[in-house]
Amino acid sequence: MATKTPNGVNVEQLVGTINAVKATPDLAKFKFRSSSRWDGAAREHTTIKSFYGAGQEDTTRTETFVLEGDEPAVLLGTNVAPNAVEAVLHALSSCMTVSFIYPAAAQGINVESLEYTMEGDLDLHGFLHLSQGQTWIPEHQSQGESHR
């Protein structure tokens, strides 16, 4: 029997994961890790490889992911990578995508497209220590659109 994969999701595996977490709630606890290093001026890079999840240390990743960060020129960067606010917006939209697509797949709903537009605010007063205010993303706005 062929495995059902609406939206590219292996539903049999998804249902198995749901049932395993119901039976053993501690399997739901994950700990992700990253290591970052400043590379001068506004640049930094972050490496990501290992994580703990489903009750054990994961060993399936053979390669390390490398993410870079910088700032646009107006914020004294060299503009060779997204800044932190943009990286957080990417992370939020990635999370929102999985949170939408997996339940849709479990219900047999085929999604033809899904797009987000997001914005995050940065207040330079806090960023530059000119006030005690919050530095970035006190709130975010997102708009999504999906098609079935």
Mean pLDDT: 89
- Determine and state the CATH class: Alpha Beta
Number of helices: 3
Helix and strand succession? HEEEEEEHEHE
Number of structurally distinct domains: 1
Per the CATH scheme, the topology name is GMP Synthetase, Chain A, domain 3
Q: List unreliable stretches of 5+ residues.
A: none
Strand content: 25-35%
Number of strand segments: 8
What value does the Rg take, in angstroms? Answer: 19 Å
Distance between the termini: 25 Å
Key terms:
alpha+beta, 3 helices, GMP Synthetase, Chain A, domain 3, 3-stranded antiparallel β-sheet, about 25% helix
Short summary:
The protein has helices at 11-23, 84-106, 124-127, and strands spanning 31-32, 35-40, 43-48, 51-53, 56-57, 65-69, 113-122, 136-147. It has three helices and eight strands, in the order αββββββαβαβ.
Structure explained in plain terms:
- This protein has helices at residues 11-23, 84-106, 124-127, and strands at 31-32, 35-40, 43-48, 51-53, 56-57, 65-69, 113-122, 136-147.
- The chain is α+β, with helices and mostly antiparallel strands and 148 residues long.
- It has a single domain (6-111), classed as GMP Synthetase, Chain A, domain 3.
- The chain has a 3-stranded antiparallel β-sheet with strand order 1-4-5, with no helix packed on it. Strands 2-3-6 form a 3-stranded antiparallel β-sheet, with no helix packed on it. It has a two-stranded antiparallel ribbon with strand order 7-8.
- A hairpin with a 2-residue loop joins strand 4 and strand 5.
- It is extended, with a radius of gyration of 19 Å.
- The mean pLDDT is 89.
